[in-house]
């Protein structure tokens, strides 16, 4: 089963949807051609005078396509049932757990942290304010990785299979503390800092609430607007590092437009 937590799977899923759209257009074209033929000739005419090999191949293709799409149609109600909304009490509980866990992890790793280097600050300014760059601290783990939250077991029992795997992430942003599971690069540092700005602008509780509610609705980590926006800004940074912009301005705009 594919997962949005796997970068390779995300590319494959995007390609799948592109091919699905292309196939739908081809089917629409075929449907129009058949409709025009149906207006001119009856099924009896085609059965009597149609070229047998072409008729048989056409029937075989149409039947095969029908069976394939019917099998997909049968799965849709099951998938939609899996995406059923959680009770509000469970959503609120998940938000509270996430807020507490982030604060606890911050305290756990803070003593291991160090400030950004002058080179890192220079590279990240003016994407990020000087005050944020001075305040943020980082931890680059060596022989360990940030563990998944302890409440994941309960979440999986409730049907959430595509939970973001903290152990597989490049970094975890804990308010103003950035913990890296791997060697820090300019791109991963930028990504983690975007989340720090989101937390700063929204507040930790609001950030966690928006993340949890979006994930509950979609069950896909990378379709959560907070994450999608971060990846979009990261891609813009990677494409042209010389084209500098204010991440805080972009985050405040998305907040104002209620896109989070």
Give a short synopsis of this structure:
By secondary structure, the protein is mostly helical.
Give the termini distance in whole angstroms. Answer: 28 Å
Count of domain modules: 2
Rg, rounded, reads 25 Å
Strand content: 5-15%
The tally of helices reads 11
Mean pLDDT: 90
Low-confidence stretches: none
Helix % is 55-70%
- Helix and strand succession? HHHHEHHEHEEHHHH
Global outline: elongated
The biggest sheet amounts to: 4 strands, mixed
Class based on secondary structure composition and strand pairing: mainly alpha
Please describe the structure with a list of short key phrases separated by commas or semicolons.
260 residues; single chain; 5% strand; mainly alpha; 2 domains
Structural notes for this entry:
Helix content is 66%, strand content 5%. It has 260 residues and is mainly alpha-helical. Strands 1-2-4-3 form a 4-stranded mixed β-sheet. A hairpin with a 2-residue loop joins β3 and β4 (177-180). The longest helix is centred in the N-terminal third of the chain and has 34 residues, at 7-40.
Topology:
Elements: H1 7-40, H2 43-49, H3 52-82, H4 88-110, E1 114-115, H5 118-124, H6 130-135, E2 137-140, H7 152-157, E3 171-174, E4 177-180, H8 186-202, H9 204-218, H10 225-239, H11 247-256
Helix pairs in contact: 4-9, 8-9, 8-10, 8-11
């Amino acid at each position: 089963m594919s997962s949005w937590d796997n970068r390779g799977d995300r590319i494959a899923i995007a390609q799948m949807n592109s091919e699905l759209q292309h196939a739908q257009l081809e089917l629409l074209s075929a449907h129009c051609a058949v409709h025009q033929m149906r207006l001119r000739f009856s099924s009896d005419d085609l059965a009597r005078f149609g070229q047998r090999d072409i008729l048989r191949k056409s029937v075989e293709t149409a039947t095969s396509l029908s069976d394939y799409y019917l099998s997909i149609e049968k799965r849709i109600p099951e998938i939609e049932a899996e995406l059923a909304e959680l009770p509000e009490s469970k959503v609120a509980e998940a938000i509270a757990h996430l807020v507490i866990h982030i604060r606890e992890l911050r305290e756990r790793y803070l003593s291991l942290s160090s400030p950004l280097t002058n080179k890192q600050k220079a590279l990240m300014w003016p994407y990020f304010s000087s005050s944020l760059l001075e305040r943020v601290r980082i931890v680059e783990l060596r022989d360990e990785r940030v563990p998944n939250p302890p409440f994941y077991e309960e979440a999986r029992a409730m049907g959430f299979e595509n939970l973001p795997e903290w152990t597989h992430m490049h970094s975890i942003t804990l308010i103003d503390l950035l913990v890296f599971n791997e060697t820090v690069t300019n791109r991963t540092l930028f990504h983690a800092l975007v989340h720090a700005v989101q937390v700063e602008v929204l507040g930790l509780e609001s950030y966690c609430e928006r993340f949890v509610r979006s994930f509950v609705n979609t069950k896909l980590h990378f379709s959560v607007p907070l994450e999608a926006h971060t990846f979009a800004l990261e891609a813009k940074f990677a494409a042209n590092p010389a084209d500098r912009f204010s991440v805080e301005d972009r985050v405040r705009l998305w907040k104002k437009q209620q896109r989070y």
